[in-house]
């Protein structure tokens, strides 16, 4: 798989998805289906929950396919 990185933002937080690292554990969409819905395109809706809920869920990604950064701290991405 190509080294693709996709970003989705709600204005406060940007969710960074690296598909090559994803092992489809389903933790993201089982934990926060209002944001992560693999049946939709795009499958990440950053307006689906508040920033803190998004951050908490992204931190649960077991292989780092999802990460985030607060837009005011763009040069310092936070890894789970």
The fraction of residues in strands falls at 15-25%
Relative helix content: 10-25%
Q: How many separate helices?
A: 2
Q: End-to-end distance, in Å?
A: 22 Å
Briefly note the CATH topology name: Alpha-Beta Plaits
The gist of it:
By secondary structure, this protein is of the alpha+beta class.
Structural topology:
Blueprint: E1 6-9, E2 13-17, H1 27-31, H2 51-58, E3 66-70
Antiparallel strand pairs: 1-2, 2-3
Question: What are its keywords?
Answer:
16% helix; alpha+beta; Alpha-Beta Plaits; 80 residues; three-stranded antiparallel beta sheet; 18% strand
Walk me through the structure:
With 80 residues, the chain is an alpha+beta fold. It has a single domain (6-73), classed as Alpha-Beta Plaits. The chain contains 2 helices and 3 strands; from the N terminus they run ββααβ. It has helices at residues 27-31, 51-58; strands at residues 6-9, 13-17, 66-70. It has a 3-stranded antiparallel sheet with strand order 1-2-3, with helices on one face. β1 (6-9) and β2 form a beta hairpin. The longest helix is centred in the last third of the chain and has 8 residues, at 51-58. It is globular. The relative contact order is 0.26. The mean pLDDT is 91.
């Amino acid at each position: 798989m190509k080294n693709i990185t996709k970003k989705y933002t709600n204005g406060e937080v940007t969710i960074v998805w690296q598909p090559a690292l994803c092992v489809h554990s389903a933790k993201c969409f089982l934990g926060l289906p209002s944001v992560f819905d693999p049946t939709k395109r795009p499958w990440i809706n950053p307006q689906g929950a508040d920033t803190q809920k998004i951050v908490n869920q992204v931190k649960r990604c077991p292989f780092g396919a999802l990460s985030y950064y607060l837009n005011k701290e763009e040069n310092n991405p936070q890894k789970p």
